Each structure stands twice: as C-alpha cells, then as structure tokens.
Amino acid sequence: MSMILLVEDNPHIMKINAEVLSLRGYEVLRAATAAEAREQLRWHAVDLIVLDIMLPDGNGVELCRELKGRYHIPILFLTALGENQDVVEGLRAGGDDYLAKPYDLEVLIARIEARLRSDANSRRYVCYGNLKLDTVSCIGYVNNRDILLTQKEFTVLLILAQNAERKVSQTELMQEAWGTESENRALWTLISRLRKKLKSEESRLEISSLRGGGYLLEQL
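Structure (tokenized):
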C-alpha cells in the first residue's frame, strides 16, 4: 500500500483529497504546515507528497527544495497560482509534476498513479556519475557497459553508491556483504578489485579509504 502525504492548509480540500485517496486504497498522512510535513517525514516512509505552494509557515517551493535534498520522494504540486513562473519555480526546485486548482479528482488520481509507477521503475536503479546499478539483476554498468561484478562486489558498491560522498564504515560493508564482521583483509581485497574495475572503465569514480576506517565513493 502506497503512503501519500498531503500538505495542504485548506481543510476542505484536504478532507476531499484524503477521502478520495483512502477510497482508492492509499494510506494518507496529513500536514497543514511545512513544520507538520517535516514531522510526518521523520516518522513515516512516504511514497509521494502532494504539496500546496502557499503554506501558513512557508513557501511550498522552498519546502520542496529542502525535501529533495534529504529524501528520494516524488512531489506533485497543487497550486492556485496559475502563472507559468510559479510552475517553473516549482519544477526547478525538484518538483516532479503539478496540477492547478481547481482540478478534477480523477486527473489528480491519474497523476499520482503515473508518478508512483515512474518512481517504482527509477528505484530499480541506483546511479552516481556514470555508474548505474540494477538492483533487480544485480548488474553494474559504467558508461552502459557491464563491469562484471561478483555478488559481494555488487553489494559493497551498491552501499557506497547509495551513500555517495559519505563515509561508510567497514563494519557496515562487511555485515552487508558477508553477513558478519569478516576479516578486514577480505574487504580490502574486494575494494581493491572494485577500484581496478572502475578505473579500467574510465568511470571517473574513486573509492577512498578514510582515516579511522571506512570508505567513501566520490567523483574525480
């Protein structure tokens, strides 16, 4: 069941949208302010956000920009502001779609369904730079070429890519790849093989060893 977060300060619109979405089988969360939206996202794994632009404690465009920097969640704007500039600002802030008020509820449902389908497909792949990891087939590509990863190599590279430019501890990598805290030597050898494969394909990516233990994937 997909979970939808409605961020809307108009109680009438909120009530209608929540009821219609619930009848279609969605789990619905409600937030009347930007602060409430942030709090809902702290505690719930939301699949899509329907976001009003005009909020009592802020601007939906700025909230969208903030959330896109922290979460991988599609955002559909609902706005009474019909001017093109408002739409452009929303999309440039990271919004995935928009619908101007007043709108047809069936159109809203169709837009949500389409965005969820698109997002489900995109989540199959984890991309960073020219690296693309298919989480279904467990194949890694650089410049659209299969780099022939073993299962453990794929697992380690996937974790590094999901946390690109952030430190990942040796313990976390070993637990995910081996299911236990294996010897550091085994992880070191695997990282060495990954570095060679990335370099041979001219990936322009580097796995850096960090002081105190841990690794970081970054672009050169």
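The mean pLDDT is 89. The chain has eight helices and 13 strands.
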